[in-house]
Amino acid sequence: MDNSPTALFENYDEDFKQLLASLKGKLEGDVKQLKGEQRKAALKKVSDELDEAEEIVAQMEVELPSMPTSIRQTYHQRLQTSKQALDKVKKVLRDVRNEGQRAELLSGPGFPNADDPYTDDPDSYSARTRLLAGTERIADGTDRLKNAQRIAMETEDVGADILRNLRGQREQIEHTRDTLTQADSSIDRAAGTLKKMIFKMYQQKFLSAAIIAVLVILIILVLWSKLRG
User: Fold this and answer.
1) Sign of the C-alpha dihedral, residues 172, 173, 178, 180?
2) Per-residue pLDDT tens for 6-21?
3) Helix residue ranges, H only, 107-121
4) What burial class does residue 19 get, using C-beta atoms within 10 Å of its C-beta: 0-12 exposed, 13-18 middle, 19+ buried?
5) Which domain holds residue 31?
6) Residue 71 and residue 75: Cα distance in Å, rounded?
7) Which of 37, 107, 113, 170 can bridge 124 by disulfide, Cβ–Cβ 3.0-4.6 Å?
8) Domains in the chain: how many in total?
9) In this protein, which residues make up the domain named T-SNARE coiled-coil homology (predicted)?
10) pTM score > 0.70 for this model?
11) What are residue 213's phi and psi, to 5 degrees?
12) Tens of pLDDT, residues 146-189
């Protein structure tokens, strides 16, 4: 089994596509046709599958930094496409939930004319207006929450990149320190060898001077003995 980052990404991507197709099918078909507890159960299943899809996308993002630089950009674009598709499904789910909540409220006992858009009852119109305004506020709050979550995730990614860079710099510093330590040891050995060479040089000079002195003395003695004879 190929466990390379590219192969794992492809496997995650295939699982994500199948799960995304299942989510779209439920949201466009099953959920809209169901009511009551069956609808709630179907929405719960969709929410669970959506969480699973988010986990798959997160795993795809984890594998991305380990890929070769030459292909990383291509897979990064595919990851962004998957994220955009996931965001669209989230929006559809949010709209479906809002429609369901609106339908339940408007069909309640407090809205006798809720199904009649042309009613002249001011109480019904005011209640419907407040309901729509409240629904819009909920949707706006959800969007702001999603944006805050996205910013937090982007900030986390930036922090992770900084930590990886710092880790790489630390490894470089440690490597440089080890190199300097080895260089210091080599310099110490070279200095010791040079001292020995200098000592031997002076020793040889002393021996040479002594030999020359002996030879000079012998020459003088020979000349002196010949002059006397």
Assistant:
1) positive
2) 999 999 999 999 999 9
3) none
4) middle
5) 1-106
6) 7
7) 113
8) 1
9) 130-197
10) no
11) -60, -40
12) 876 888 788 777 777 777 877 788 888 787 888 878 877 788 88
